[in-house]
Design the sequence.
């Protein structure tokens, strides 16, 4: 209960801060030096937040879609041959540092939002894929028996049994992807993507701690909200298929 | 060998053939300007026969072969691709020209990807034993070291960057390792007792885990940034701190930021591992007359070891990657090259920072996976 109150308070604070950052200047004034501005004003914080969220949203949506399709394909009889390979690739791929992936995308994509989107997309594929795979392959054999006994076609079984049962685990994968992407997108500003990282980097370059703090604060609150939001979805998805979690 | 097509092999062949057609290298008059792409066939005197040989391996991969044979072919092809990159660089660079650069291009990466996938697929099908996998890891490392030491890749742009700044590369490598392993050590020193503590006193679990959870969501860039003024303040106010080397920029802020990120995996996995031990085992241990400390040290911790080692894997791989960001706040490490390179749009320099980081994370991840597997096997005593 206290958790929910805190979350609501954090969300209201975030909205108020984004709507009128200047009213919160007093909060950041103590950490500025030499009369440096307390609030980043080069670009409006609201528009940076929105473009940050759009970037992360696009990447998460795209990687979820592709990862779901791939996971379904490798668990069908026709794609079974790819299963061992897919497992190896996901576990190896996840050791690739996101920052390095981002840096390597620059020579191919140039500067701007492009490389960030590609890096977030590629990096986001793995948690969703891994979790979908676990959800689709980890079901007790009697579920498959029951579905066959009911006369479901493979396609019906996928839609009506397997995917709903795997949904909580899939959502966990999406949560991991979303939270990692949110943090990694800030680094995208080093390659000129418009994200809240711009504020943090401006702070680092001009040694203005106020900028670093407000950029980090906005991303941090959003990350906590997304994290909790997904957990709520996971719980309700688990309840719907009768798994108590 | 049967006539039936091998579907993964077909995929690798598609990727690899695209790699043969696309430019293997980029020839650039100097390190900043974009260059012209040259495919394998045109990049070497023996370009055409080599292209044909690689294409043959790719096509042969579409048929069913014994896994061991595929593995050997894929390995040979990976080495061939690396060597032809080096040879192309030496061949294309005009003599006495110190400005021209030959950088790996799309074709090279696709070829490497195709054969690496073939290799991984062969390995996954072979299901090698644990000992064999350790030997394979060691062999792969030795092979890479031999390739680098042989000077065959000397002409490639990344290696040229390396030759120019050998000293700073070694310094940053040291800094990177210090950041990754130092923060891991700190996290273990603090996180293990903390995990044991919240296992013994359940009321503390929720508050401590929530705080660590929130820490984890702070974007890395911001956490590194916030550490700078904090350490600057400590250096300025705490007597003796500045003399001990603490300062707002440098290795300390980065180390502490990485340490904070590492706490959650260590603490939560310690808790999970300890909670996973069945109550019956604990009761049996108590019944044998062991004290609480003995139960913890001789029963609980050994049984929880695999889960704790899994935490070490998560932290190590994560910190090797995140340590790159230290380069942005003057904390050293391979990130220094990555961000310098991005600033100067010198992609060879970016590669000089990114490739060792990826290699380090990869090796650490694989080695830790093997350790976790070895540890989770031991208690049962049934080695296959």
Sequence:
């Amino acid at each position: 209960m206290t958790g929910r109150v805190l979350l609501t308070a954090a969300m209201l604070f975030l909205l108020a801060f984004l709507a009128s950052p200047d009213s919160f200047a007093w909060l950041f004034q103590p950490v500025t030096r030499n009369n440096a501005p307390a609030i980043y004003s080069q670009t409006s914080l609201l528009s940076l937040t929105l473009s940050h969220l759009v970037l992360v949203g696009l990447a998460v949506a795209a990687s979820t879609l592709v990862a779901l399709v791939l996971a379904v394909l490798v668990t069908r009889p026709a794609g079974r041959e790819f299963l061992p390979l897919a497992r190896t690739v996901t576990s190896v791929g996840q050791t690739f540092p996101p920052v390095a992936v981002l840096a390597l995308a620059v020579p191919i994509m140039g500067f701007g939002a492009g490389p960030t989107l590609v890096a977030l997309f590629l990096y986001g594929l793995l948690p969703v894929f891994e979790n979908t795979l676990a959800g689709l392959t980890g079901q007790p054999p009697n579920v498959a028996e029951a579905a066959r006994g009911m006369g479901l076609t493979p396609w019906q079984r996928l839609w009506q049994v397997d995917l709903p049962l795997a949904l909580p685990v899939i959502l966990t994968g999406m949560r991991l992807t979303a939270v990692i992407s949110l943090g990694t997108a800030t680094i995208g500003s080093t390659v000129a993507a418009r994200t809240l990282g711009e504020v943090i980097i401006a702070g680092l370059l001009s040694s203005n701690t106020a900028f670093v703090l407000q950029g980090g604060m906005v991303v941090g609150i959003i990350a906590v909200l997304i994290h909790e939001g997904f957990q709520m979805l996971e719980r309700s998805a688990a309840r719907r298929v009768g798994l108590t979690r | 060998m049967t006539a039936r097509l091998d579907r993964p092999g077909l995929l690798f062949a598609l990727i690899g053939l695209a790699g043969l057609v696309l430019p293997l290298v980029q020839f650039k008059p100097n390190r900043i300007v974009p260059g012209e792409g040259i495919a394998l066939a045109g990049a070497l005197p023996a370009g055409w026969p080599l292209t044909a040989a690689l294409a043959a391996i790719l096509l042969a991969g579409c048929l069913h072969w014994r896994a061991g044979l595929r593995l050997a072919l894929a390995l040979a092809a990976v080495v061939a691709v690396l060597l032809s990159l080096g040879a192309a660089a030496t061949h294309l660079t005009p003599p006495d020209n110190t400005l021209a650069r030959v950088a790996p291009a799309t074709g090279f990466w696709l070829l490497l990807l195709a054969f690496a996938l073939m290799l991984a697929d062969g390995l996954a099908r072979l299901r090698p034993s644990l000992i064999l996998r350790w030997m394979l890891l060691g062999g792969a490392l030795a092979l890479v070291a031999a390739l680098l030491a042989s000077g065959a890749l000397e002409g490639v742009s990344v290696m040229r960057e390396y030759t120019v700044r050998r000293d700073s590369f070694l310094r940053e490598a040291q800094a990177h390792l210090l950041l990754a392993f130092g923060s891991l050590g700190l996290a273990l020193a603090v996180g293990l007792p903390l995990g044991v503590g919240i296992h013994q006193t359940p009321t503390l679990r929720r508050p401590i885990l929530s705080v660590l959870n929130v820490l984890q969501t702070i974007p890395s860039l911001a956490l590194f940034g916030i550490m700078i003024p904090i350490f600057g303040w400590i250096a300025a106010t705490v007597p003796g701190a500045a003399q001990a080397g603490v300062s707002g920029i440098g290795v300390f802020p980065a180390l502490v930021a990485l340490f904070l990120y590492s706490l959650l995996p260590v603490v939560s996995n310690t808790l999970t591992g300890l909670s996973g031990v069945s109550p019956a085992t604990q009761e049996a241990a108590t019944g044998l007359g062991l004290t609480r400390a003995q139960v913890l040290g001789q029963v609980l911790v050994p049984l929880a070891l695999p889960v704790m080692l899994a935490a070490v894997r998560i932290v190590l791989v994560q910190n090797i990657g995140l340590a790159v960001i230290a380069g942005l706040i003057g904390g050293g490490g391979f990130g220094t090259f990555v961000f310098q390179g991005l600033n100067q749009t010198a992609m060879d320099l970016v590669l000089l920072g990114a490739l060792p980081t990826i290699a380090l994370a990869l090796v650490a991840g694989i080695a830790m996976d093997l350790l976790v597997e070895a540890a989770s096997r031991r208690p049962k005593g049934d080695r296959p």
Remarks:
- Chain B has two domains: 7-163, 166-380.
